[in-house]
User: Fold these one by one.
Assistant:
Number 1:
Amino acid sequence: MTQSYFVKTFGCQMNVYDSERIGELLEAEGYAAAPDAARADVVVLNTCHIREKAAEKVYSDIGRLKASRRPNGIKPVVVVAGCVAQAEGAEIVRRAPAVDVVVGPNAYHRLPAMLRGAGAVDTDMPVESKFMQLPPRRAVIPASAFLTVQEGCDKFCTFCVVPYTRGAELSRPADALVAEAEALVAGGASELTLLGQNVNAYRDVTTTFAELLARIAGVRGLVRLRYTTSHPRDMNDELIAAHRDLPQLMPYLHLPVQSGSDRLLKAMNRAHTRSSYLNILDRLRAARADIALSGDFIVGFPGETDADFADTLSIVREVGYAQAYSFKYSPRPGTPAATMGEQVPEDVKDARLAELQATIGETALAFNRASVGKRCDVLLERPGRRPGQLIGKSPWLQSVFVVSPSAKIGDIVTVDLIDAQPNSLEGAPVILTRAAA
Ligand code: 5AD
Ligand code: SF4
């Protein structure tokens, strides 16, 4: 009988991409997609280790799965993949004996063999890339698709586990990426988001990241191109110029700064200052005046004072982020900041997080309000809650609600932006520019 599988994804978009590839891999082996974890014979938890809360979630899921039975009375096979698998390895099986397989983010091409019984734990970081051994991309692809071009991080921010869980920076060959981009567009994608832990550190022999963007922008049928996540240190002139020169490259950039205080940026080993970061934004705006900015922030990093935090609030206002993600500092085992003195009390972190999120909410609403009156294209990605309503993304990555009886998911509609909320806008359709096949 056909075995079924379900992949549950935690964490970042790189995990979303890996989950897609794990699904393709299992389907190539004859597994069928199950509608949810409760009905799957094999459940893959593709995990995140970035903060303690994310890492702990997986154990509550394992607990729930352990107690569950399929209709035929059989227990599901539980696979832990992703960054918790990499960081904790065999420890996971010791702590949660219900787990059958542990496979790291660089070894999941071996998952089918492991399911056949060839080893329960594999957290190797093989030199030969898993990408060479994965089956081709699916025939049907969403309108907006991800493409991992780079993995790993050599930056060693003092708070972050990524350099340990995902290993050193590694870029995929440019020719393979252009071929994968062509396959994704042929399968139905109009928009591609190039992914990497440090995507703008991409380099393949002589191909720079800006050159890769230009090559992928040239793929026939590709309408929109984005990339995430970037480090300020790798935001060079050539890449900034790409924002001026490539019409497919959308006017949006996620460029984390983490803190507005130079003292903390130094303690975080960020290798940029507040002013060098702001200078990059000035140059980006000179290249592409309407670029929308997004960032990541940490509150309560060890030693953070009220004055440091005030610097963070002021940089949020100064930049006027269109959106931003903010987190309470979470000490991660093995990272330098975890053992620094002056850990900030939890209640102080809570208060700062609330204040920061309120400030980000204000700048995001101001950004959305300033968009009202603009005409733009929206790529429709999913149904809305109300009948006839569809939700898509503007060029500035805002969620836009559109009511258009003739439009369907995958279409690009031109709209007038007529109303703004903190997290979304309403668009009145003007013309349907392209219908999906
Ligand atoms: N605690 C809190 N937030 C963290 N991030 C990374 N490590 C930690 C940590 N230990 C945040 C950073 C990063 C984002 C992906 O997660 O802001 O940019
Ligand atoms: Fe972590 Fe810093 Fe690397 Fe980003 S740049 S993945 S925050 S170490």
Number 2:
Amino acid sequence: MDFVKRHIVSPGKTPHLKTVETDESGPFKDKDAAKQFTAETVDKIRDLQYRMFVEQKQSLLVVLQAPDAAGKDGLIRKVLGQMNPQGCRTYPFKVPSSSERAHDFLWRIHKATPAAGMVSVFNRSHYEDVLVVRVEDLVPKSVWSKRYDIINHFEEGLMERGTKILKFYLHISPEEQLSRFKKRLENPDKHWKLNVGDYAARDKWKDYREAYEEVLDKCSTRDAPWFVIPADHKWYRDASVASIVHDTLVKMDPQMPPVDVDLDEVRQLYERELNQQRG
Ligand code: AMP
Ligand code: MG
């Protein structure tokens, strides 16, 4: 199955999120089949990431946005965080600090973008500045409404330098979210994630949906597309994102740099050492 085609938001074809299924299971006959596919795909991602790291020309930025409990952390743990940490970093973006607030909204973001050869994974992102900021009225409309263009220009600048950008919205139903909140309550290891604000956000589900639809509409571009990932099944979420990241890296086609040493000379040095060691 072509997960890119299935989930990409093509410019001018923004879906109504209300009508997009959250519980898709794709081509997988069961959970185990999906997990097997994800494991194999993650291995292939690692090989390509290694080539990109050595090539040191291109880079990859993965943006994750989602309602609470939709699975950003799980996706990072099981898929994106499986890349070699020498070449991959995750950046969580929380409520801005006072020093971050004293700068333009992209200041903290720009510093986290990937250098040549690297992958950055954003757990939340600059898009919060047109999502939570809009829904919670944190700045006036005259301010946030200008940000879509600012974001598109910013991303164009990153692409100009060789950064490929993939943006994922994890699409979960309110029923599945509530069932995950229940599991959090029941599991003491997850109590640190509990947050009364998460319940308040449920009352604004429709406002968030509208804010997300505007993001998809204005900021899903041909070269920095958004994907809407059905996320009620964790295994489908992992498999589809893994597949999209893999296909993207294949297209980027990172190359090992040409060898600039004389292999015969190195072989001779090796033989000499070996002979010396043998006495
Ligand atoms: P979590 O990802 O659950 O740890 O929560 C991080 C919180 O930070 C979320 O409630 C976000 O909405 C909030 N957040 C992230 N970026 C911003 C921002 N630019 N302005 C306001 N709140 C933000
Ligand atoms: Mg949270």
Number 3:
Amino acid sequence: MKKVGFFKSIQFKFVLIYTLLILLAMQLIGVYFASTMKEQSRSSFEESLKQQATQLVYIVAEAIKETEQSDKTTMQQKMRAVQDALDDTSIRSRSGEIQVVSEKGKILATSDISNKEMVGKSTSNQIINKDRLTMEGSVHSRRDADSGERLLILTKPIKSEGETYGLLYIEKSMESMYSELSRTNGILATATGIALVITAVLGVVLARTITRPLGNLRQQTLAVSRGDFTRKVQFNDDDEIGQLAIAFNAMTDKLHEANAKTEAERRRLRSVLTYMTDGVIATTRDGTIDLMNNRSEELLRLKHQQAKNHSIIDVLDIEDQFEVDDLYDYDDFIILDFSTKYENQLIRANFSVLKNEYGAITGLIAVLHDVTEQQQLEMERREFVANVSHELRTPLTTMKSYLEALDEGAIENKELAGKFLGVTQNEVDRMTRLVKDLLQLSKMDASNTEFHKVQIDIVVLIDHIVDRFEMSKTQHIDFERNLWDEPVYVDIDKDKITQVIDNIVSNAMKYSPDGGTITIDMEKDSHEVTLSISDEGVGIPEENVDKVFDRFYRVDKARSRKLGGTGLGLAIAKEIIAAHDGDIWAESQWGQGTTIRFTLPLLKGGLENET
Ligand code: ATP
Ligand code: MG
């Protein structure tokens, strides 16, 4: 935050207000004081001049009276007497002039030496001439044209015992009075200046007491805005600022609490999002992605950084079918196919609208759920039902046509009837076998099958089975047994494992050419035994090798069916081996013969009840 400029600071405003107030007060006082002083000085100046005039009138009157008492009084003598009286008197205007004028307007005497030649002549002074006629005193003031001095002028008739002798004229400079006044004003101005300086200093100090806690408060506010809640505002007084500091500290605590709560909530939300098994994507109002959790990154095989600022429409690859606005009112889900050459990936996407506290739409939330397995299962289920129906329909159709033939008269032909019934019986057997296999599979799916495990020597079991095949074989096929010389003990359900080996060997026989050899190998390591049954038959195309364990899968459907196969044998074998904690797989190449291998865990800790 930028620093407060000096002229904008409270400190400056304080000082300004204080000094302006003082200036105003001093001005008012000054004006009032100066005008009162001026009036007072003027009136006392006038008063003292009047007193001087009264004294002078008396002295001059006495001097004139004295000259008039002697017999020969000339005008000259009279004037001298008046002049002497004037010169003698201590009451003399130091800066100014005193004149005595006869009733007729002749200047009898003057205190101004430079005007001595005027004595005896008629005066031209208008004030004197005016007052001489009325013989009444008056007071005037004027400014001297030459020196520019301000003068006070006073006239007074010279009277004694009813006799009038002339007019006294006094002219006195008021400059000394005015300079006295201006000195006083100067003192006042200096005092004002000093008062202003003191006020300014006091203002600064006083403003500091307010601005310092405010500065402290500002620092604290900045710290809080940076997320530092540890600092507290220091305060000493319990005044308004102290109260403000208390309130601020309380607010900081509350803010800290709220912040911690929000942070905890955010962390919780983040970990929920991170560990969710569903993908979550949040967008802004225009569909731009601004949040993606780990799961959605995995599902879309895309990093958040790559998707950020891209439209959700592009990222989900649905730009052909939807616009962003369509998603805001899309109640259904969308299945997205993110399958690659190597991996199937189907994602179900649901959308919901994000709103703020005023109900305005602020964005979109997409929840992604991996439905690959679900869809696959669904597909397999449908396929399975179709397969079962198909497998059942074929023998039923065959039976129906043979029964119809019998009904239409073939029954009369004994030989034909016997053949037809044989076929029908075969089909019924086939259906029975199919239903039995299906039942067995469904039982194993539901984990309903009970395994009656016994500890036996697998070498003996295989020998028995192969003996059985050798005895009942109709083709010309050789069996080669590379079995272990010692007993190899396993803990198995004898009937179920017999079923597995039966199926593998019968498959090998089915697909072996006449004169072929079926080899049974046995390998053993510390914990398991591996059995391999190899033939020299047609083999299985390499890309379908793993599929032979799928339900109803047959490489050559027509041929297998002809050979009585339903395609469930190896699927059942796989379930049985898995239930024994073993593994089963096929190795083959088209036209190169087939090897089916399976493992069984060896009996741990040797044979129990061994005799
Ligand atoms: P079922 O065993 O139920 O009577 P099936 O033999 O056709 O019918 P599976 O044993 O599950 O079914 O075998 C599945 C398919 O795998 C067969 O239809 C066949 O195409 C192929 N197959 C199995 N074993 C061999 C083999 N040794 N040589 C060539 N193809 C084989
Ligand atoms: Mg089979």
